[in-house]
TrEMBL record:
<feature type="domain" description="Antitoxin SocA-like Panacea">
    <location>
        <begin position="23"/>
        <end position="117"/>
    </location>
</feature>
<dbReference type="Pfam" id="PF13274">
    <property type="entry name" value="SocA_Panacea"/>
</dbReference>
<dbReference type="InterPro" id="IPR025272">
    <property type="entry name" value="SocA_Panacea"/>
</dbReference>
<protein>
    <recommendedName>
        <fullName>Antitoxin SocA-like Panacea domain-containing protein</fullName>
    </recommendedName>
</protein>
Amino acid sequence: MIRAIDVGQYIYSKMDWVDAWRLQKLTYYAQAWTLAWTGRELIEDDFQAWPDGPVSPRLHQANKFDRDGWYSTAIPGAHPENLTDEQRTMIDAVLDHYGDLSKDEIVELVHSEDPWKIARGGLPAEAKCDAMLSKAGMKRFYAVQQFSGVDVPAQPRTVQDVASQNPAEKQLATMMGNCFRWADTLELLADR
């Protein structure tokens, strides 16, 4: 399974150096949107509800303490080459959408969203908190966002969709995708 440091290293390779706050939030959004788009997690790591937004402790440790210098873009132990083409495509969609946001803009955005707020349980934004964000809650929140008409990353065509040239395979993949989306939608509606 992919780790947050692998995704963080991939982000560095695409964007060069970014500050720690933005790196954490971009990695978080890669996880959140992969959950919403595929129903599967991208990253095995959990994210904690820190004051400045979701943080992967493993990525925080590696990025803050294990690198060779403040502006280094090499995260020790990271293996971005383990990412599949499909995973890279999803991360790229997240970077296209959120990559130009400043530190303050991206922190403000995650502070406005339910997964972080729910994990904090009403604590003030500046209070220390290491509660985990629920992956099911992330999947639910971002899936709803995708269908609510708000500005969200464009869901990429998966590599599998592009690679499949057989019309019957394409039709089956589309039908299966729709089944999963409808099942998730019905589950979300049942929770309301």
